[in-house]
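Supplementary notes for students who missed Thursday's class. We covered one full example, reproduced here. Read the sequence, then the structure, then the short commentary at the end.
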Amino acid sequence: MNLNLFPRNIGILGSTGSIGTQALEVVRNYPGKFNINVLTANNNAELLISQALEFQPEHVVIANKDKYQQVKNALKKEFVSVHSGEDAISDVVQINELDVVLTALVGYAGLRPTIKALEKGKHIALANKETLVVAGELIKKLADKYNCEIYPVDSEHSAIFQCMIGEEEENIEKIYLTASGGPFRGKKREQLENVSIQEALNHPNWNMGSKITIDSATLMNKGLEVIEAKWLFDLHEDQVEVVVHPQSVIHSMVQFKDSSIKAQLGIPDMRIPIQYALSHPLRLESDVPRFNFKNYPMFTFEEPDFDTFKNLKLAFEALKKSGIVPCVLNAANEIAVEGFLNNKIGFLAMSDLIEHCMNEITYIAHPNYEDYVSADRETRIIAKEYLNRWKD
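Structure (token representation):
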């Protein structure tokens, strides 16, 4: 693909979620720049149908097979091929017309479609950080083998990506990933014993899906981003640092060996990094509100509290151990968050569940794809057993 040419043919995996709907908003604002060839959704058939009628993709996939007929009937007069099931998502990313695949699926589900897209030489706009957390070594090898670019969509990684453009790799000393601190910034463990679901979902700066919002509240989201950054930018563990920046204006920073620092700033709006990932290396003019320094007379920074927010500490431990451990961390966290959202486990106990799983799984230093699949499956079994025992 000539990256200076438009229109670009885009596939959006997870089009009905927070990132997917904002990506379609970006596409809507630039008629003629992007063609939507593929849309997929897990369960939201009604919104998927509405999106398909508007954007007229060649293929849509509804992962929930029970809703296939509903989608099929609604689109029977359109020139749209309708598919169902998780396997179909991995199939449609391989079509020849696609230039960029935006992976906005939640959690481990994004891994296999990303692998299949890379094997067909598709560039990836990556909003699914878990893909690199679980199998970063494998994904990087595939991207290199098939000459594919991975464009980060997370605001923090997009910021790092932008700061590194034009710089030599050997000049980079470290990166600073900024964190808002979430809704419980400044709280101590004893204050978080009885946190409610609604309190944890009340993020001060960002509007996100429930899973990533809970991850932000526990700082696991930042921990996953630390691991993702290691693979995206070929960093060592001691080159990644987290700093709490409550204003969420400085999205991240790069420090160079001459001691200078580059930072990328902007209002907290996910449409900006989404648009950059889809249009890179070009910058398209945007109608997003401009940042005004007068509205932010002071930027503040704090050290993260690793004792209160133990998930961040566990993520750094997983990064240090590497191998199969980040895969275990991710699977355990997905079960923990699901359990919390269903009132099956307390807020602080999520960290205990994750640590338990990390200690139980047999260590593999250089896992292959089958090892990742097995570790994910085994971890979920152990995590669910822990969940079932928690209230006993």
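Commentary. The first helix runs from residue 18 to 28. The chain has 15 helices and eleven strands. If anything here is unclear, bring it to office hours.
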